[in-house]
Design brief:
Elements (H helix, E strand, L loop, with lengths): L23 H14 L8 H8 L3 H13 L3 E8 L2 E9 L7 H16 L12 H14 L2 H10 L1 H4 L2 H8 L5 H21 L26 H9 L9 H4 L12 H28 L1
Antiparallel strand pairs: 1-2
Helix pairs in contact: 1-3, 2-3, 4-5, 4-6, 10-12
């Protein structure tokens, strides 16, 4: 009778097992994968890892995805007719760079960013510059994040001198960009509250003064007809209402002129009485 072999691997836990950017479960799972890999790949299923670590298969799937995104493992699948026959997980040896190497890498990257400028001056490699870069590496968490930030804000730095000022804390790119974004937000709010600001074609008309009296005016002829007791049709006489008093027929008789004067006095008296009545009722 064949001896039953133990399917569970034995791993040794050391200080190097645990990674700063990985959770406890991810670190142990990576160690198990490393033990099963043996240079040929790990073919274990999620069910195996779940039973080994006494956690759910869903949690295992999520942790394997995290290890893959972090660059610790690669994953490939053998398929047949769209069905997965086998999954292969392989370790990716990650090179750990020393702090000095990371600082030199940042300096070289900054120099390459502005090397084509006519007034290019290499970033100084003095001790204070290196110390400032070390602080930024700690602040951003990794060399890659720091490099990404430098590239994203290249136009704001303008030169290696701008980067040096930023490293010393004398140039606040984040604050400057924040102020610009706030300014844009305020302009946007103004546009939203007044849609006429950006489009001159829909500006509200302001030709008519606020105090302009738009009440239709009666022509002298119409006033005289009313004084005589005759009816007038305002709709038919719109053009006459816009005619200047200077266009009165020069052939008007002397008696008609007297009637016009009397009519003017009559309407002025009526206006005065209406105004007095209005003032008394306020």
């Amino acid at each position: 009778m064949a001896e039953k072999t133990n399917k569970w691997v034995v791993i040794s836990i050391t200080k190097n097992t645990f990674k700063k950017d990985l959770s406890l479960t991810e670190s142990i799972l990576l160690k198990v994968i490393e033990k099963l890999d043996k240079g040929h790949g790990c073919y274990a299923s999620n069910a195996y890892f779940a039973e080994y670590l006494n956690i759910s298969a869903v949690t295992i799937s999520r942790n394997i995805s995290s290890l893959h995104k972090a660059g610790y493992i690669s994953i490939s699948y053998d398929r047949k007719n769209l069905a997965v026959l086998r999954r292969t997980i392989k370790l990716i040896k990650k090179t750990e760079y020393s702090l000095d190497s990371q600082i030199n890498g940042v300096i070289n990257y900054v120099d390459q960013m502005f090397k084509r400028q006519s007034d290019f001056i290499p970033l100084e490699k003095k001790e204070n510059v290196r110390e400032n870069i070390a602080k930024k590496l700690k602040e951003f968490g990794s060399q890659q994040e720091l490099v990404n930030y430098l590239q994203k804000n290249k136009a704001e730095f303008a030169s290696t001198d701008g980067v040096n000022l930023w490293l010393k804390g004398e140039l606040d790119i984040t604050s400057k960009k924040h102020q610009q974004e706030n300014g844009q937000d305020k302009q946007q709010e103004a546009r939203e509250s007044n849609p006429f600001l950006d489009d001159d074609s829909v500006q509200p008309k302001t030709d008519t003064p606020k105090d302009t009296d738009t009440t239709p005016k009666l022509t002298p002829e119409e006033r005289m007809k009313i004084f005589r007791g005759e009816d007038i049709d305002l709709k038919q006489n719109e053009e006459a209402s816009n005619t200047s008093e200077s266009s009165i027929n020069q052939k008007t008789s002397h008696s008609d002129n007297d009637l016009l004067n009397n009519a003017d006095n009559y309407f002025n008296d009526l206006l005065k009485e209406d105004q007095k009545s209005y003032d008394n009722n306020i």
